Amino acid sequence: MTRLPYSQDDIEQMAKELLRMEPDPIPRFILLKEFMHLKPTEAAYKRAYEKVLAHPFVVKLEKEQTSHGYWGHFHVDTEAMIQRCLSIGLAPEHPCLSSAVAFIEKVLKGEDIWHQRCEKQDNPRWWLEMFMPLVSAASLSLIHPNHPLLDKHIEVWERFAQAAWATGEYRLEQEKQRQIDYFKINTKRIIPFYNYYAVLFLTSRKEILEASLDKKILSYCLQKKDGMYYIYDNQASVPVPINDTKCFYHWLRLLTILSRFQSWEGSSHSYCRWIWKQRNETGFWDLGKKPRGWYFPLSDSWRIEKNRIIDSSIFVLRLLKQDAAAR
Prior knowledge:
mainly alpha
């Protein structure tokens, strides 16, 4: 296996250089927590986190969240805001996340449903009995991957994946039949193992997928011509240059999701080398234009070039540090 062009020490050194740029409160906290490995018990951590809690981004999240624990519609709005909360460094115990968790728990217990109109499908039960529990469970797994309410759902989706690959090759009909048998819903629209929410769920704990199945699913997702619905609509195994800002961002988002697979370490080198080469003359990454979505901004404003470089580099380094740490 070819060596990476960077090490864990290189990643930490880059984080130190970003800190010397005097980043705004949120990116500064992320760098201290995720790259300098400050502990919650340390005074510097507490001071930095207090500034995050008082930040206008967080105040806005708190203000816009309803008393029921969601923002707008659950799908897609609340899903995005949960990821936004986690991305800017909020702890799972933060009121925004704990309130969202309380609502999701009710959904998974059958005590509530999403407060939005059901999407029209070929079977009206699809939305309430197949899609809603999966998306809710996947969202909860991002906050509390070991939550006991997830156990049953994890077992169900693991069995679907096993059925899809029971012969050693992907068999759609076997996957479809297993889902129909379980849900007792006659529908043409199954939710395949490579679906965004299914992948989030199947990779939420290390022990869910047996190693060989984990590797097969990752390989399938990397080679899938139309990428992953909701995330990126091109083949993940084809590198994207950073000057194609929109595609580079969505490509990296997909790789970040796929990096959750246990077998990612054995497949990641070529992608990480390519990403490393996309640095600018200062040695960092600059997406140029802010991509749409929940991830950006981390800094107070992208009108300042320094902030744009800090945010872009954190986005990239969050992926690269996983591989550096594994070497």
